[in-house]
From TrEMBL:
The keyword Isomerase applies. It comes from Flexivirga endophytica. The gene is nanE. One of its GO terms (cellular component) is cytosol. HAMAP family: ManNAc6P_epimer. This is Putative N-acetylmannosamine-6-phosphate 2-epimerase. It is an enzyme of class 5 (isomerase).
Length: 229
C-alpha cells in the first residue's frame, strides 16, 4: 500500500491547497473545493494543512494527501511536535509532513525520534521538509519516506533562490535513496518541468495555483509597472 502511494506520485504534480490565517479562503470547505478542482486538473496528490481541512479533504477527495499542521511562531512550525504529527495522521492522510531541519523542535525530540515514533505508532508515510543537503541526508537516514526541499530559503542559514532551489534538488537526488520532492517557489510550468529534469520525483505547486491573492498581486504589479513605465 505504501509503495503504491509513493509510485502514484512519480513524475507527477502535487497541489498544495492552503490559505493563510485571516484570508477569505481560510475555510475547510473552500480548501476542499480547491483540492477537488486540482484533482480534476490532473494533480496526483494534495498537500494541505490544518486538522479540519485534512479531515474534509480526506472524505471528499479521492487522491492521496500530504498532511501537516502549521502551529506556533517559532522557527519550527510545520507539524512541530510528535503530538501534532499524530493528530495529523489521525485525519486519514497517507503522508504526514514534518519539519526536517536541524533546528530545535518545541517538544525536544529530534527529527529521527519523531520519525521513528510515527512509524511505530501509525502506518503513515513521513515526508521531511528540509532546507539543506545535510538535513535531507539525515532525514533519509532516519527513515523519512520522502524528502522535500520545502524549507530551502526559509531557515536562517539558507538563501532564498528566485525560483525553486534546483541545485538542492540535484544534490538530494544524487545523495539519498528516497524520493525527493521539489517544493517552494515553483511558479511556472517551465519551473515545474525543470524540477523533474533536475531529479525531483514529484513537484509541489501551491501559490501559483491555489493562492489568488498572490497571483492577483503579480498581475497588478505588472500592469502597474507598465502604466508608469
Amino acid at each position: 500500500m505504501k509503495h503504491n502511494v509513493i509510485e502514484s506520485l512519480r513524475g507527477r504534480l502535487i497541489v498544495s491547497c492552503q490559505a493563510y490565517p485571516g484570508e477569505p479562503m481560510r475555510d475547510p470547505r473552500t480548501m476542499t473545493q480547491m483540492a477537488l478542482s486540482a484533482a480534476r486538473g490532473g494533480a496526483a496528490a494534495i498537500r494541505a494543512q490544518g486538522l479540519d481541512d485534512l479531515r474534509l479533504i480526506h472524505r471528499q477527495v479521492e487522491l492521496p494527501a500530504i498532511g501537516l499542521w502549521k502551529d506556533g511562531d517559532a522557527l519550527v512550525y510545520i507539524t512541530p511536535t510528535l503530538e501534532h504529527a499524530l493528530a495529523v495522521a489521525e485525519t486519514g492522510v497517507e503522508i504526514v509532513a514534518i519539519d526536517g531541519t536541524a533546528q530545535n523542535r518545541p517538544d525536544g525530540r529530534t527529527v529521527a525520534e519523531t520519525i521513528a515514533e510515527l512509524h511505530r505508532r501509525t502506518d503513515v508515510l513521513v515526508m521531511a521538509d528540509c532546507s539543506t543537503l545535510e538535513e535531507g541526508r539525515s532525514a533519509a537516514d532516519a527513515g523519512a519516506d520522502l524528502v522535500g526541499t520545502t524549507l530551502a530559503g526559509y531557515t536562517p542559514y539558507t538563501n532564498k533562490t528566485a525560483g525553486p532551489d534546483l541545485r538542492l534538488v540535484e544534490q538530494l537526488a544524487a545523495a539519498v535513496d528516497v524520493p525527493v520532492i521539489c517544493e517552494g517557489r515553483v511558479h511556472t510550468p517551465d519551473q515545474a518541468r525543470g524540477a523533474i529534469e533536475a531529479g525531483a520525483f514529484s513537484v509541489v505547486v501551491g501559490t501559483a495555483i491555489t493562492h489568488p491573492t498572490t497571483i492577483t498581486g503579480w498581475f497588478a504589479d505588472a500592469v502597474g509597472s507598465a502604466q508608469h513605465g
